[in-house]
Specification:
By secondary structure, this protein is an alpha+beta fold. The chain contains 17 helices and 24 strands. A hairpin with a 4-residue loop joins strand 15 and strand 16. Helix 4 packs antiparallel against helix 6 and helix 4 crosses helix 16. The chain is globular and about 95 Å long.
Length: 592
């Protein structure tokens, strides 16, 4: 017999009754029923009930075991009494009578309990992650993650992609976040960087003549943490193709993403129609470039109904350049209580409030109610209702000013309204492409123009587009949103040096600086670069959605905490004096 097990803790059934078996695993829980000890023995695969009575030669030893001890047992498989069968377990028809036991690893008093659903502070869970990962939900999440990655790989190979690995130590590159720098021992005073993405290398792979590339790639970014973003590193499905248009990339990635969500979505509906929405329209309709289309609410511009109206606040706002009034329809929200609650929500988000109108039945017809309705009169109110397609029992909320001042709050309000009124279909995955991103943005204070998205994207219109106002230039850039999260980002690349130099010049980067920072890629593009494009899909975020959790740390094996610390391994840590001397570095103490 094998030194540790003849079967896993999920293998034994009624067909094994009478056999002598060997199992190894962790003591999930111990129950003493009138002197007979029942142990749920758990391994990665499942749970088997084993029991030990005073007739067993190891009864005294079994009495000593506690939760999470790692043990090996030998015993005889017996059928459970019919009334004691547990249909929830694959092994629920049998139990094993212990005849021998070996303690493989005793456990001290546990800082967190593995059995049950008790909640613990995240700091405790991360410090003792090896215990946290023993819990059933975490085992399922990590298994899901592994299966998703395996499925992605198979689907990419089935589309004639091959997986190639790119360097982990490379040069610093502006990808929209801070680099993690690595000092060079052999080149004092110089630093490598951990790649924010394999961006340049995958483009170089295309220049090298490899038509289709993909990689399950680790990426490193020194970012502020969020619930849906790791502060240090993450994994993505990275892919690139030569001789493709934007639509070719969409047609390639959709069956991969859709297939994975259908395979692992737990029966939830997966939309097959993925609309393409311009960045401008997404901001207008949803207040975000990663909209949740499970929520049917679309915001609309209603400025004309307030120009010269009796509602002075909006009327005066509209006299200023660049201002507008937007309405958030709220079907079913037509009560003063709900409207007041949403107004309070806007105030908590830092705005003065949200105006509202709600429509109610007065017996002799429909009436528009609320402060706005009184100020602008029935004719304008009725025009708003008709534009928004609302009826009795519905409401609308209004925000005004420059869109940048209220758009984010409007987007959040749309989500809250959809959730509270039951409009959002929670049992569904709804995808959409966001396209036509602006290439550049201007700092509101300084007016300085810089890239707003990926700097390596091809501008729509090529060189001609770069001769006008930079803020009017759109790029062949695209994101895929699902249920309010960005899952994919990509672009058709700028593969022509002259267009690249011009694009960077508009963002304040001279040709010499571009050659210095991206010399490898610029040099390669001089020697017959093909048109190419691709994208990257965030694996952590995909699994987060599939696992139905809003916290990305629930689907990462060993995540950092909110302060970018690894409490288990005590990272980051202070280097030794010898290490600093070897690297020719000195740490300057910070003032308290």
């Amino acid at each position: 017999m094998h030194a540790f097990r003849s079967h896993t803790c999920a293998d034994l059934t009624a067909q094994n009754v009478g056999e002598t078996v060997r199992l190894s695993g962790w003591v999930h829980r111990v129950r003493d029923h009138g002197g007979i000890l029942f142990i749920d023995l758990r391994d990665h695969y499942g749970v088997t009930q084993v029991l030990c009575d005073p007739d067993s030669p190891v009864f005294a030893e079994v009495e000593k075991v506690r939760s999470e001890w790692c043990i090996r047992i030998d015993g005889e498989v017996k059928a459970r009494d019919e009334g004691l069968v547990n249909p929830k377990l694959p092994t629920g028809e049998i139990e094993v009578f212990v005849r021998d036991m070996e303690v493989l690893g005793a456990a001290e008093e546990l800082p967190l309990i593995v059995f049950g659903d008790q909640e613990y502070p995240e700091e405790t869970r991360l410090r003792y992650r090896f215990l946290d990962l023993r819990r059933e939900a975490m085992q399922q999440n990590m298994t899901l993650r592994s299966d998703v990655v395996a499925s992605i790989r198979k689907r990419m190979w089935d589309q004639d992609f091959r997986e190639y690995q790119t360097p982990i130590i490379t040069a610093s590159s502006p990808e929209g976040a801070r680099d993690f720098l690595v000092p060079s021992r052999l080149h004092p005073g110089k630093f490598y960087a951990l790649p924010q993405a394999p961006q340049q290398f995958k483009q170089l792979i295309m220049v090298s003549g490899f038509d289709k590339y993909f990689q399950i790639a680790p990426c490193f970014r020194d970012e502020d943490p969020r619930a849906d973003r790791s502060p240090t590193d993450f994994y993505q499905l990275d892919l690139e193709m030569s001789f493709v248009s934007q639509q070719d990339v969409f047609d390639t990635i959709q069956p991969v993403m859709q297939g994975v969500f259908e395979e692992f979505g737990g029966g939830r509906k997966v939309d097959s129609d993925w609309p393409q929405i311009s960045y401008k329209d997404a901001a207008l309709w949803y207040g975000t470039d990663k909209p949740d289309l499970r929520n049917p609410i679309k915001m609309q511009v209603v400025s004309d109904h307030f120009r010269g109206s009796g509602f002075a606040i909006f009327a005066k706002l509209l006299e200023q350049d660049g201002t507008e009034i937007r309405a958030i329809p709220a079907p079913g929200g037509g009560s003063r209580k709900f409207c007041d609650r949403m107004n309070a929500f806007a105030q908590k988000e830092g705005l003065p409030g949200m105006g509202y109108i709600f429509w109610r039945d007065q017996g002799n017809g429909m009436e528009a109610a609320g402060p706005l309705a009184k100020n602008i009169g029935p004719e304008r109110t009725e025009a708003i209702r008709q534009q928004l397609g609302l009826d009795v029992g519905d409401a609308a909320f209004f925000l005004g000013g420059k869109p940048s001042s209220f758009e984010t709050v409007a987007g959040k309000a749309r989500v809250v309204i959809g959730d509270e009124l039951g409009l959002t279909d929670k049992d569904r995955f709804a995808f959409c492409w966001i396209v036509d991103f602006p290439m550049y943005e201007a700092d509101e204070e300084t007016g300085k123009v810089d890239f707003s998205h990926n700097p390596f994207s091809m501008p729509q219109g090529g060189m001609d587009a770069l001769n006008g106002n930079p803020l009017d230039v759109l790029g062949y850039q695209y994101d895929l949103a699902c249920n309010g999260y960005e899952l994919v980002s990509g672009a058709i690349r700028n593969h022509k040096p002259e267009i690249m130099f011009k694009a960077f010049e508009l963002a304040g980067y001279g040709e010499d600086e571009v050659r210095k920072r991206f010399g490898g890629m610029v040099n390669a593009f001089r020697f017959g670069a093909p048109p190419h494009g691709g994208c990257a899909a965030g694996i952590d975020r995909m699994v987060m959605l599939l696992a139905d959790t809003a916290n990305i740390r629930e689907v990462i094996m060993f995540p950092m905490n909110q302060r970018a610390e690894d409490l288990m391994m005590e990272a980051p840590s202070e280097p030794t004096s010898d290490q600093l001397m070897e690297l020719h570095l000195r740490v300057i103490p910070q003032d308290d």
